[in-house]
Amino acid sequence: MIIIADTHLSPTKGNIPEFFQMLDTFKKNNEDLVFLGDIFDLWIALPRYESDFHRKFLAWCREQRNHRIIGFIEGNHEFFVAEERKKSFSWCSNASEWRDENGNLFAHGDRINRKDRNYLFFRKLSKNKITKILIRHLPFGPSLAESLKLGLKKTNQKFRGNLPEDEIAKFAEARFAGDVKTIFVGHFHWKYHYRNVQNKALYIVPDWYCTGQVTLYEKKTGRVGIYRWKELSRLLSGESAE
To answer: Which of 229, 236, 233, 192 lies closest to 209, judged by CA?
Structure first.
């Protein structure tokens, strides 16, 4: 299973062509793929807000779900994807977490730090039915959408740059008390893992946006590896390193 987080695709950042180049190379393997959110710097999954690159991504996922599992969990930069575009994926969720039948849990991670009350309040204001109606129907919807984007940049500034290890541990242990064995989290733009005394583990997936890295989870062995995407593509295809 390949896990990809926080690519933050945007025309202004110039990272869209490389992302789709990566997806094209991953067609050569049969690994399941899970997208842990913030794939786009802003994705409002309503007709007048989606661009060609949103539609291209959805088309790729629809095609590939016929060959493998394609999972998607909404990040804080994505709005209404699970409600409007769920059929493009094998599974798609706007919940705080999603777990499979094998004891693996996936979360974007933006709701882990319960001390970040400003962000949690902003999230409630921006991700609800009323906001969706306003954006979809009213003439000032695009202005509201731009306000959402600016709001994302202004929230949780106090907590940026610091990894809330205590909150992460609390989150992990609460899930490990059940049948969860392995957790994968995005959002934090860190490479980090937490392991408890029962050898259950939480991994923060490094952000693709800054590192070009993705995570490979070998379900049969439980092994987790971090690779630059070109390196992983060569590894899975059996090619030798350059």
So the answer is: 229
